[in-house]
Records
---
Amino acid sequence: MAARLGLVFFPAFDWAISPTHPEREERLLYTKDQLFEEGVLDLPGVVEYRARPASFKDVARVHFCVPQVKSLAGEAHLVAAGSAIHLAEAWRRGEIKRGFALVRPPGHHARRVVHGNRGFCNINNEAIMIEYLRRHYGVRRIAIVDTDVHHGDGTQDIYYHDPEVLFISLHQDGRTLYPGTGSVNELGGPGAFGYTLNVPLPPRTNDEGILYVMEELVLPVLADFQPELIVNSAGQDNHYSDPLADMCFTAQGYAQLNALLKPDLCVLEGGYSIEGALPYVNLAIILALAGYDYSRVREPDYDPSAFPLTPAHREYIRSLVRELKRIWQNREELAWQNRPTGDFAEFRRRVFYDTDGIEEFQEEKVRLCPRCPGYQEISSYGLYPDGRRLEVLALSLPLQACEECQREAREAYSHHKEKRTSKYAVIYLQDRPADRYYHYYPATDREEVL
């Protein structure tokens, strides 16, 4: 019989941005101490798995790392992503009903192209886990519900053109918090319009507001979408004591959210109230996921009357939910109304890497194909603090790519490789249908294949 819940811990003792940075090992050490003290790991049906690393190929299935995977994915990053994969395999094999990967470094700000660290993230743990499941176990229809206080812009970017992956993000309004994205009008690319839903909540939103969004929007959309797998991008920085944000969620709120959502797999993201929130929030979440009573889990300073939802905020949240439900219900019609003309849709982005001080400029072309989501071609250059300018060209074939798109993308890669286009430091082909990942370096006429 399957266990109720599988857990994996990886506090990454040897990785830190700096000794006093909020993203440090104590985030998980206090939690694990609390779980030992409460005897949670001795509860029937709760099992712990060992951490293990992902491979460079697992990373290349998701990311274009500049200039190569090993320069951005260190041992800690690989073990964090690999531990999520390990738990996902246990879920897929039927060993566990649910799983929670309590790992760091986090990942949901890591986009397809990665020049460095932004938002404390180098590689996207949950996307690497999801793409592993899609490749090796045939899981196709997936829903990601991101409950970190910061918009999951990296995960959104990775799945923006994929109609088989529904991405829903509940976050503090980007006009008031990093990374400044996640507005309602970010709805997905031409081939996946409506499969990205952002819920930008006003600062000081409490349990009532967030749980209202869950009950009135997220659960009905999930019931309609009918995913094979539900993943919770489990940020805990919506908590009222978190030093990096301004929301009012509680440990009880987190537990109720998970009891409602019933995610198959959770992957830890942010949360920086190391002593005041994380031990209680994680304990409440774990009890809820395992089906145990969580009603007595309280923060020492918990006061349910301390964070009232104002009438204005209540009405704003309700109007937001109404608008997003309208979009979801009419997504096919709206997709046709908003579909660009021509053979390609074009997008331009400017991405700032706050941790590493890199400025990235992207131009993306998406093939408008009537048979599949279409391949993507991304030209990206990064301006680095040391004065370097690195430019790359990245071609990405989705798993569902039709034969024509596969041929076009592979020919485009071969064309650039034959030309040895000198302005590019690297030319990539992410060939997901073949599960082969090419990195060509024009300056040395060298190709790596993962």
---
Amino acid sequence: MSAPAARNRKKSSKRVEKKKTSAAAAAVAPPAAAPDMSKLSPSLKALINAPFARPGQAPAPRHIRDVYTRIAHEARERKYGQRPWVTLSAAATFTLNSPASLLALHELVPSLTDGALPPLTAAELIREIGLKCISFNGIPRTINCLGAFRAGLLESSSSGVTAEDLARRSASRAVTSDNATAVADRGRALWRSVYTPFDEKLVSKLADSHPDLPVHILGSHYGPLLSDPPALPVNSENNGGAGGHPPPPAAVVGRTLTSVVAIACLRAQTGVGPQVLSHVFGLRKGVEQGAHRDECAAAAASAGSAGLEAGSEAEGIERLAADEGCEWLLRSVDAIAEAVGASYAQWEGEVAEKAKL
């Protein structure tokens, strides 16, 4: 065998031996430790909470009370009623993710409504508005805002609301085998009320986008959430399908106030002009159908709401649905958005500045 061939054979033998050694080592080596999924790296935590991502809630601007007070005074001057201005203010504030501003609003409502909405009724109305905001803003903001709102009410000795007050409420919107058909029918009726005469055509158009889109909108929103359970005696076995304790009538966000919630949420979130337009027409259709009159009468008759007058409230909603009223509604939402948005920008800037120090 020539010298070069011998050297090549020797090298090949070494490579084979090295592979065998590596394989043997791998066979006896312990497996690599799995990463600890219960902990996050500092860099990942920092990225989640980066100021530019606005991870927190907006603080209450210093002048937010002035903004709400001006809206309330304008509503009185224009005779739009008590609950509509509270509804648009709360819905816009939920959308802007500012529970601190919601607490300021709650503190003002009893005096700005001349006692028509006392502290507990005002709190329940704001909570009901927040619940319906889910359909327009998504779940997370409502979860966070309602949680912070409740905590703030209970922390304040001047809120006029106790944990015992809030504990009297229980779920009233559960869907069961006994009421599923009624809830579905209720949702369809609300859908027709808002979108007639295009309700069926719109369902088909939504299904073209995704076959389950109208199924989810009607079955998860218009039925169990945006429409209201029938008003039955407290603790009635069929109340809401689950024997729940509903809000007082003055805190029920009925057909026309639900349209006000929709307009305020969609206007404040921006970028959804077609939906704002649809719900402006939805508000007008609710007035045309007379839904507001029975709702205002029930609110006025409820205990603790002596300052609400059914006739004036109903006439106020009718004025609100007209051109001038809708313009005022939109501009009022814009004023809240401008106030809270400016505060948000300033707050994020302050956080960024502190991070540099």
---
Amino acid sequence: MASRPAVSRYGSGPLLVCHPGGPGLHPSYLEPLTAALPGRTVALLHPRGTGDAPRPAAPDGYALRDYTDDLVTWLEQHADGEPADLLGHSHGGLVALLAAARRPGLVRHLVLLATPAFGGERADRIAAAGHRARSAEGPVAEALALLDRTPAEPEDDAALGRLLARLAPLWLGPLTGRARAWRAGLATRPANADALRHFNTTEFPALDGTVREAVRHLTCPVLALTGELDGLAGPPHLSAWAALLPGSTTVLIPAAGHMCHVDAPHAVASAVTSFLGRTAMD
């Protein structure tokens, strides 16, 4: 059964619907991007069990199909009867992809921001190699050491939020003042452990097939962009999107990680704005 996402709105202008990732992160982690998109009404969704959205009754109510049900229902009810521009980050990009594949008439343009094109052992190997390649960076080395000695299950959602903030250098480029401030904010927000656990154990191993099936049904223009230093959805994933979606637009953000909207918010926003404006005139 579809759950009703909560929403935070920013700015004014044409609607851009943003679906956060994680899964399970508080949606406010995407706010650096919303602030960099003037001239748009940005509807930042709060997916099930995060932010102001209620948790599903069952701890396994976090399947990609459930998130897709929620997003499709929201677009039907709140996009003013017009196809919407849709952006998803990471896991949220997968949800956006599935919504655009299921209901092509609801989506005008699709932006896949730091979204993995495949999962399973191949993705794990690439991520581990990317992290090792940056192990000379002090914050990355500290995060890797913490990851090695951390128990599998934090005691509660607040503890998970604090842990993710400590691990954040793995997903950021070289730390700037902006990234440090964002990281401090992340530590104050609980994260949904049930959502993250379900994705990692159930959805991620089968992601290749999920993505291949979805792209067969896409009809809208697609932008895929990611950070050069992103171990989770970086250059190999960007190349995979280009192969899966001939005719799509791909952009690599230099010196940025998985949270490229934090490392380089204006570069990300510029790429998104250019894509939406260019394809709108085609």
---
Amino acid sequence: MSRENRKVIMVNNRNKGFTLAELLVVVAIIAILVAVSIVIFTGKQKEARATVCEANRTSLKHHLAADYMSGDLDQLNQDVLDQYIKTDEAVCPSKGKYTCTGSFDKGFQIKCSYHDGDGSGGDGGSKSIIDNLIDAVEDLMDKTGLTSNRKIVEAFFNDDEYLKFAKDVNMADLLNGVDLNALAKQIKDMNSGKGGDVESLKKSLEAYKRKNYKVVPYYSEDGKTVIPYYVTQTDYDTMKKGGDKETYHKSTSVCYVKGNWYFSNNTNNNASKISPSWMPSVNTALKEAKGGKVSTEEAMKKQGWIKIK
């Protein structure tokens, strides 16, 4: 073959372009990169909003404290806080609602329904996901007269009017502002017999932050209170399907008890990964606390639950 013919063949080969299969592979790779980028970008946005929210609340707290110390302010309540929020234009970028607890004399905190609450947006001051879920279950109990967890949960999952309050939630929203290193150390200390190390547990907690859940109710028959907690989509589907006793409560790592969030100290055998706990342990804690000899927080800790918010 002459040199001129070889050049013609090489030019023709270069002009063929990509095959359909090659184009499909490229498109698939681009789609994967876009999907990963969206997840990362969304996560960074949430972290940024949490930082802004915390900064706004710190600014509000300093402003209130300064006016109190100068004598311009002598009491703290929600109306006063709302006035300062308006003046300072300090709002949660995730539309959480700010509320105040405590007093000037004994110390006070400014909490956000989104970042300190259940991870739900305030939507201009509306109730949080947790508040709405509790209200819905209490309404169900009032209308039906049910008092056992099994029957309450069964009725909840069989009625779309109530089931709509089992919302999608993100663990990252709940754990924002929580010192994961300190939490990992507490979990390790409470599992000292298993070994383990703080760094491994912290990585496990960070993995939890990337997961999505459903928030569902558990009714403590001894504590006489509704307890929202997070379950996986798989467990949610099982509860919705019903049919056996295990569908009326599932294992979880977080639950909301009487105004506070608790995280389970349960781990795998060598204390290197977080494992969920069964909800009845919360009922046991509330039964003990009901006697008044120990606080709810102390009783929860005895059952392996750490207060995080």
